[in-house]
Amino acid sequence: MEGKYFDEATVSVLQEIILHRRDVRGNRFLSTPLDEAVIDQLLMAALHAPSVGFSQPWEFVLIRDQAVKQQVRDSFREENAKALPQFDEEKQPEYIRLKLEGIMEAPLNIAVFYKPSDKPVLGQTAMPEAGLYSVVCAVQNMWLMARALNIGVGWVSILDAEKVKRILHAPADNKLVAYLCVGYTNGFYTQPELEILQWEKRKMKEAVVFKEGYY
Question: What is the pTM of this model?
Answer without folding.
Answer: 0.96
